Amino acid sequence: MEMVRMYSFRSAVVSCLLVMTIFAGISRAEFPDQRVTLVAVTEPGGTPDLLARGVALGTEKALGQRVIVENRPGGAGTVGMAVLATAKPDGYTLCLAPSDTVTHVPLMLKVPYQPLKSFTPVIGLAAALNTALIVNKDAPWKTFKEFIDYAKKNPGKIKYSSPGVGLPMHAAMEYIAKKDGIKWTHVPYKSSTQARMALMGGHVDACSSGAEFGPSARAGEVIVLAMHGEKRTPLFPNVPTLKELGYDFTKEMVFCIFGPANLPPDVLQKLETAFTKGTETPEFKSLLEKLDATPSSYKSKALDGWLRETAVRAEKMYKDIGIIKEPATPAQ
Description:
Number of helices: 12
Largest sheet: 6 strands, mixed
Helix content: 40-55%
CATH class of the largest domain: Alpha Beta
CATH superfamily of the largest domain: Bordetella uptake gene, domain 1
Number of strands: 11
Strand content: 15-25%
Number of domains: 2
Structural class: alpha/beta
CATH topology of the largest domain: D-Maltodextrin-Binding Protein, domain 2
Shape: globular
Radius of gyration: 24 Å
Distance between the termini: 64 Å
């Protein structure tokens, strides 16, 4: 009987050691040992979607694993970021989103995450500075002044679209309205593409658009009345900025790869390296040109610092111009 007990005890010990060895082997599995999901915060065809699919090609080669793009549009990018905020911090779920989702949108919109605490910035891969106010080619207004004069004289008649509540494109129009005493109606969409299509389909009178308007403007389908950036763009050198027109408003935004908060340092390093290589391919550089986007080279630490500084600037600007009194969602 004693021998049976000893045998059972030894068997139990061996079994425990075997289980511990198996789990130790699993815990030591080197990242990545499975595919990576990259959430894009717009529907297929939106800029984040196109950038995600474009950078995935080169990143896959560097990681040695598939990078699968999953679309989660809505809420000015906050739907996709909310998905990421609850993901396991193991590096297998990431999100490509504009920096606005943590720096600007939470100022005007209650979001289900802590903007500067729920995520780990991985890299910034492209800047979208060339956003603008546009109207249809057949619109009765050919200049910004004509558009504003009409809006002042016809309160409530203008409807404008934007990619979503809280984005700088929305904030720009609200600032103009506040400064000039204008009443108009905001019609938010899930993406810049949808907002622009609403304009071209005659559903709205104007669009405060993301950078995707470029091809339509060059084809003569829309008229560009004003740019949101700090300086005029060589793409449309004759179009003034809002700042030139007397409005103390400028836009700054970077498309970023984010991970959940608390990514392990070794995993973050591998992702930073792999996605950086993904931005260096000829295909990705060509994509940036087609999207009128500017290459960005922010690595994780620098991007984190830039996001925090931008969030502070954005809150001050929104308060100074009277769009908000306090952020809808605190940054920290």
